[in-house]
Structures are given as structure tokens and as C-alpha cells.
Protein: Signal recognition particle receptor subunit beta
Amino acid sequence: MMDTTVYIALVIALITTAAVLIIIIHSGQAISVGSGSKKRVTSSPIFIIAGPSGSGKTSLFNLLTTGEAGKTVASQIASFSDSFMLPSGVEKFKFALIDFPGHVKLRQELFTTLKASSNIRGLIFMVDSTVDPKRVTETAEFLYDVLSITERKPQAIDIMIACNKSESFTSRPPTMIKDALEKELGQIIERKSKDLKGAGEDDLTTVFATSGSAFKLDHLEAAVQVCAGSVLNKDIDPWQAWLDENATN
Ligand SMILES: Nc1nc2c(ncn2[C@@H]2O[C@H](COP(=O)(O)OP(=O)(O)OP(=O)(O)O)[C@@H](O)[C@H]2O)c(=O)[nH]1
Ligand SMILES: [Mg+2]
Structure:
């Protein structure tokens, strides 16, 4: 009689452990975005939209979540959706989609989220392709800050550099934007590595695989793509295809 009770208890314990493990594996790690009454918690796989102010991130967020870009103003807080379904519907489960404000003083929340979460499927780094590549320094510094977190994670986060506003006659082709960013990133990495070596910290040239040669985005641990698109014209196929591809990775 005693033996049967112990046996049943053991079976129940085993089933409970298995169920908990399955839930943990499928839900990933819960992360929270924002604070106070705006605090949101998700355990779904996450896609992030980041990049400089005015590049069109909230417009893309609206287009992906509602089908219309709508009118936007400069964001002061992150836009958050925890019921984002993939454009193609290849995966039936829901994703979290988070658009972070681009203003330089509002970037900390993005960096904290990037550091804290282990469940990020990809990051869209949106840039305004109508901005003169000669003025790319600030954008490259922002991208450097993002990469110095994402490249250090056990599994580097894949990145889509989305060159928005391609319908504008002043827009530059993605190849030109990529070249300008790589050149600028190379200089930042070199400068920071020298500073850090002086302070006895780890050499960034190894993180960014640049020692001796010119920096290329292809050298990174993560897969980085650079594609043009226009939220205004709802011409965002390459970015949607990238979301689909990364969702199943
Ligand atoms: N020409 C053009 N304008 C666009 C496009 N996408 C967005 N915009 C405009 O660009 C401006 C900035 O767009 P937002 O989506 O607010 O930019 P954001 O990146 O969210 O900016 P922050 O919230 O300040 O970080 C708005 O006036 C949009 O209407 C596009 O594809 N083409
Ligand atoms: Mg915005």
C-alpha cells in the first residue's frame, strides 16, 4: 500500500517537473520594458526596432501592427505589442515587437533590454536614407553602442539595417549607406580599442574582428543585412521576409 503511494507521488513529481521544464523552454526568459504604470512584461520571442530619431521606426511599428503607418510624433516612450503576428503567418504564435525612441537621451531602456533578454530574434536598425552619408557619424556611434552589446551575447543578435524613405528622390542606395557606416564604425572601433587598452580592458578589435584589416559588417558574429524600403509606400517586403526568416531560426 505504502509502495503504491510513493510510486504515485514520484510519477506526479516527474510529470510536474517535465511540465515546468517544457513551459520554461517554450517561454524563454521573461523581460520587462518600461517602468511604473507603463511597465510591460513579456516572455514571447522579441523583435526590436531601434535607430536614430526621425528614421521612421514608429511608422514601421504602426504599419506592422495595424496595417497603416499613421501620423507620428517623436517618441518619448517605447511602443510595445505583445501580440505581433508574422506578416506571412508562417509561425502561428505571437511575438513581442518593441519600438524604442531614437533620441540620444532616451536610449538607456533599449540598452538595458538588449542586455537583459535572451529571447531576441532580431533587431531592425532603421536609418533615414535621405540623410547625407557624410553626416553618418552619430548613426554609426549609435550602431556601435548596439553592436557592443549584441555581439557579446552568447548568441549574437541578427540585424537588419533598414534604409527607410527609399521613395524619396534624395534617398541614397543601401550600398552607399553600408560603406559609409563601415568606414565610420572602423574608425570608432580603432579609437575605442586604443582607449580601452590604455585602461587595461579587453580589446574591442577581437569583438569586432578587425585587427589589421578594414572593418566590414560581414565580419561580425551576427548576420547583418542592409536593405532599402519605404514605410510611406508600404514597400517593406525585404524587411518582412527577414522577420519571417529570423522568427524560425
Ligand atoms: N518620405 C518618407 N517619410 C517617412 C517614411 N516613413 C516615415 N516617414 C516620416 O518620417 C517622420 C518620422 O517618423 P517616425 O516614425 O515618427 O520616426 P521615429 O524613428 O519613430 O522617430 P523617434 O520616435 O523620434 O525615434 C514622420 O514624419 C514620418 O511620416 C517613408 O518611408 N518615407
Ligand atoms: Mg518613434
In short: Helices lie at 2-27, 57-66, 108-116, 137-150, 174-198, 204-207, 237-247. The two ends are 50 Å apart (CA to CA). Residues 63 and 100 are 15 Å apart (CA to CA).
